[in-house]
Amino acid sequence: MSEAFLSVEAVSKTFAPRLSLGERIAAALGAPPAKRPLQAVREVSLEIRRGETLGLVGESGCGKSTLGRMIAGIAAPSAGAVSLDGDPVMRGGRKATTRVQTVFQDPFASLDPRMKVGDAIAEGPVAHGLVAKPQARAYVAGWLDRCGLDPAMADRWPHQFSGGQRQRVAIARALAMQPDLLVCDEPVASLDVSIQAQILNLLMDLRRDLGLTCLFVSHDISIVRHVSDRVAVMYLGRIVELGPAASVLARPAHPYSLGLLESAPRLSLDGRSTFRPIPGDVPSPLAPPPGCAFAPRCSLAQDACRAAPPPLSEVAPERFSACLRADVLTGRPPGQASHMSGA
Amino acid sequence: MSPPVLDVVDLTTEFALRGGGAARAVDGVSFSLARGEIVGLVGESGSGKSVTGFSLMGLIDPPGRVAGGSVRLNGAELAGMDAEGLRARRGREIAMIFQDPVATLNPLLTVGAQMRMALAAHARTPRRAADDRCAAALARVGIPAARDRLAAYPHEFSGGMRQRVAIAIALLHAPSVVIADEPTTALDVSVQAQILVEMRALAAETGLSLIWISHDLAVVSGFASRILVMYAGRVVEQGPAEAVLRAPRHPYTRGLIDSLPAAAKPGEPLRQIPGGAPSLGALPPGCAFAPRCPRAAGACRAAPPVETREGARAWRCLFPLEAGA
């Protein structure tokens, strides 16, 4: 049951700065670098189990999409490796499997405006021999129907679809490749609330019926809580907390997860506000603090937190936190003397 | 009770369509705003909530026009007022904040220069005094080292700080009404919460009245004292936030609340509203929500329902939900 289906091993992603000719000459002559590389993802290890949905949550710039793209085989890791069932997802900088497919946030950008949606859906499966060309039409019709669209829509152009319908097309196109793992990168972030529910229901139905494994990347905690079995919280390139969605989001073991939960607005029926902000801003990923990246905003931070990034370690069965003071949050017997009362 | 700061009656805004006819983006919107009050204007894309904001500001350009209704700001009628009169009030009595501060701030000018321009639009102020006022405005919205930041360019601020600059500019002349059009939608939740908390304190301290336009019921629920729900250009329900959210009378409001993931147990299907929003150019003759509504009957399709008022609440529905449901 708990075998690793997809495994991410010590993956990092660094974006090198784009240097002008002058800067490259200066660097060759030994001048100190004017621009620093941006480390979007730092030594992340995790696994996704067969059949589960892992929610990946964090704020903009935390590296969640970059991690999602490396898992999807779209971006090559700078270090570390991603493998599915023991086989690498990428080989030689190119995607090496069709078993992982992605649904992106913006269905307007992910469909070629000059290609009929039926052709866009058929393109991949035909090229990879999943279906013979003569049968492609029926095959596409089946997937459109499965995704709640009229099969006759195969002959329409992307601009003839609403946002919600386009996202259905994008889902149909990803599923037509018969993936085992579906990476959903903010699939409902640009949709209206009433349409959002339709797409989330569709994704949950398909996942169950097709036995899909899912990585669900989102900034929205309430959505992640709804669709995920386990959840990983990212902050400035690292996973700071990982565990079963229900327990992590009910009782976080990292101050950042707690802050994220408390600052997320929830529907309040008594008119009282339900959000409490995290003080300060996310530090620049170009110059992250030496220790825990959250320490400058954290009320629990001690000197040890500022020395080195705390590792992600097990704080309770199935629960992992990269906080030296997780015991304060979980209320577990403290490893060392603690004068803080439960948060 | 003191008279409302802003009183809107039957505001209607139309956009001429190619080939004749007009789309009503705002259709008979009425509400009033008390001093220090925060009203949440909620709706999905295309519901007319932003156009309502632009109409109140007198910022509708052809082919659009405010086709009818009355907007009284501090007692003065804005509908039909000439451009000069509007310009004298815009920024000084009524101001607007937009979703994208990158689009509202000039990337080539320092923040200080832009703020001094906004100041000079309504008041001649010596340079030193102007800088003092600008720095104070920045400090009030939580920008640290405000005086030094006047010399910084917009790109030197983070997204949240940039939106704070836009808010500071809107508040420069201490307007009585600020229309905020999804100002925190592009921001992270932790920063959004900071700004919401600051804006609420500001409204309580200074008596500023806010119209907070948002697609996010959850944001508005803990922030606004009154809620207006828009659908296809019409306010389909309005009332005190608590009452509207606890026991909505309009089926669309109910549908919006129920479709939030928080309304269902994790993993269970969400209650979705079937179908999609109608096009404003081709609205059904009756209630615009009828094609998606579980309660709709023949009468709903005949003519748009008129507003029913009951105390502080109002709705446009022939078959409203039970008061205590």
TrEMBL record, chain A:
Origin species: Rubrimonas cliftonensis
Q: Which NCBIfam families match?
A: oligo_HPY
- Single GO term (MF): ATP binding
Q: What is this protein called?
A: Peptide/nickel transport system ATP-binding protein
Q: Which family does it belong to?
A: Belongs to the ABC transporter superfamily.
Q: Which InterPro entries match?
A: AAA+_ATPase (IPR003593), ABC_transp_ATP-bind (IPR050319), ABC_transporter-like_ATP-bd (IPR003439), ABC_transporter-like_CS (IPR017871), Oligopep_ABC_C (IPR013563), P-loop_NTPase (IPR027417)
Read off the PROSITE patterns from this record: ABC_TRANSPORTER_1, ABC_TRANSPORTER_2
**Annotated signal peptide:** none
Has keyword Transport?
yes
**Main location as per UniProt:** membrane
GO annotations of cellular component type: plasma membrane
For this protein, the record's CDD domains field holds: ABC_NikE_OppD_transporters
What is the phylogenetic placement of the source species in the record?
Bacteria, Pseudomonadati, Pseudomonadota, Alphaproteobacteria, Rhodobacterales
Transmembrane domains' residue ranges: none
This protein's UniProt keywords: ATP-binding, Nucleotide-binding, Transport
| ABC transporter domain ranges (all copies) | 6-261
From TrEMBL, chain B:
Q: Residue limits of the ABC transporter domain? A: 6-257
Subcellular localization, as worded in the UniProt entry: Cell inner membrane
Q: Name one Pfam family in it.
A: ABC_tran
The record's principal subcellular location, in a coarse class, is: membrane
Keywords of the record: ATP-binding, Cell membrane, Membrane, Nucleotide-binding, Transport
Enumerate the GO terms in the molecular function aspect. ATP binding; ATP hydrolysis activity
Q: How does it sit in the membrane?
A: Peripheral membrane protein
Checking InterPro entries in the record gives:
AAA+_ATPase (IPR003593), ABC_Ni/Peptide_Import (IPR050388), ABC_transporter-like_ATP-bd (IPR003439), ABC_transporter-like_CS (IPR017871), Oligopep_ABC_C (IPR013563), P-loop_NTPase (IPR027417)
Matching entries from PROSITE patterns are given as:
ABC_TRANSPORTER_1, ABC_TRANSPORTER_2
What Gene Ontology cellular component terms go with this record? plasma membrane
GO BP: peptide transport; transmembrane transport
Which family does the entry's similarity section mention?
Answer: Belongs to the ABC transporter superfamily.
What name has this protein been given in UniProt?
A: Peptide/nickel transport system ATP-binding protein
What's the source species' lineage? Bacteria, Pseudomonadati, Pseudomonadota, Alphaproteobacteria, Rhodobacterales
